[in-house]
Amino acid sequence: MSSKDRILSRIRRAASGPDPEVPRDYLRVHAVRTPAERVDLLAAHLTDYRATVHRTDGDGLPELLARLLSRHESVLVPPGLPPYWLSAAGPARIHDRADSTPAALDRVGSVVTGCALAVAETGTIVLDGGPDQGRRRITLIPDHHVCVVRVPGQVVDSVPQALERLDPTRPLTWISGPSATSDIELDRVEGVHGPRVLDVVLLDAQ
């Protein structure tokens, strides 16, 4: 029996047995917060991560998005984005299609999406490929991502609370600020693995 066969045999034995008991004695949340405090904490952490945070209600959303997108000639639009979010006078709308190539998507200036939820304690936005978010690649290729978070309903305190609300079979993307990395000299470089610019709109959906 080869080493590969032995490894696969152990994996099969482990997978066929009962699920092990995993202790979950960690804190599920680190404070008691009102919905408003939860949203404020999310905004503070997003700002720390160099995202730009905006607040508006449904009436002000089209004007705000038009302003954020004004420097771009085109915007990528998921199939289920609410029509009223984008004003008719904005940039040209590009719809993601199955035959859209990475090169074609790279020519689009911006993308606007919703989200599945956001985590206040970590300043993280989670996408799950829902109709108002589209496929994962449309949020990774354009240089500018505008993400709308409906508050307070889409904001949870902690990661354990988020996991309870998310479907693990869906394509989950966890975003904490614009895409960035550092080299060996700790020089920060943005836009390596996704958008260099992240605008987060906290939409009052009460």
Automatic annotation (TrEMBL):
SUPFAM superfamilies registered for this protein in UniProt: NagB/RpiA/CoA transferase-like
Signal peptide: none
Domain LUD: from-to ranges: 112-203
InterPro entries: FTHF_cligase-like_sf, LUD_dom, NagB/RpiA_transferase-like
Highest taxon of source: Bacteria
Protein name: Lactate utilization protein C
Species for this entry: Streptomyces lavendulae subsp. lavendulae
UniProt lineage: Bacteria, Bacillati, Actinomycetota, Actinomycetes, Kitasatosporales
